Amino acid sequence: MASKKAVVEATYHSIYSAIEKKVKSVKFSSDFVAVQITLDASVPMYVRVEDCIPEVAPYEYNDATFYIDGTSAAFASVLNGKKTFYDAIDDLSIRVNGDANAAILFVHTLFG
Asked: Does the pTM exceed 0.70?
């Protein structure tokens, strides 16, 4: 019997948990990248990859390599496979600012 994939809700806790789980399931090639993700313009978390090892924490990251800002609904849609990260950028529900090269590699690694 196939197991059901957990649904990511449009809440900080659910999205944080899903991102934390997702970073553990992919292989990063970056020696260092720091990404601040802010949900709904006010609730930050960061993903830092150092020596190819990821860490997720529920804080702001000063001097991040790049920043991802978006709505909780958009992140939940992406994490649930209902929308691609690139479609969310296209419809402006997610925005990326900072080092474009690092952002492209990170987004491709984490979100496909």
From this structure: yes
